Amino acid sequence: MAERLEAKHKGGRLNARKIEIADHADPIEACFERGWSDGLPVTPPTDERVLAMLAGTTRAPDEVIGQIPPYLAPCTVEKAAINAVLAGCRPEYMPVLIAALEAALEPVFTLHGVLATTYFSSPVIIVNGPVAKRIGMNSGINALGQGNRANATIGRALNLIVRNVGGGRPGEADRATLGAPSKFTLCFAEDESDPDWEPLSVARGFAAGASTVTLFQGHGVEAFVDQKTRTPEGLSRSFGLSLVKIGHPRLVQSARAVVVLSPEHWRIYKEAGWRRKDIERALYEATIRPGAEIVAGLDGVGEGVPQARAAEPVPKFHEDGLLVVRAGGAAGLFSAVLPGWLAGRNRTELQPVTREVRP
Question: What SS3 class is residue 335?
Answer without folding.
Answer: strand
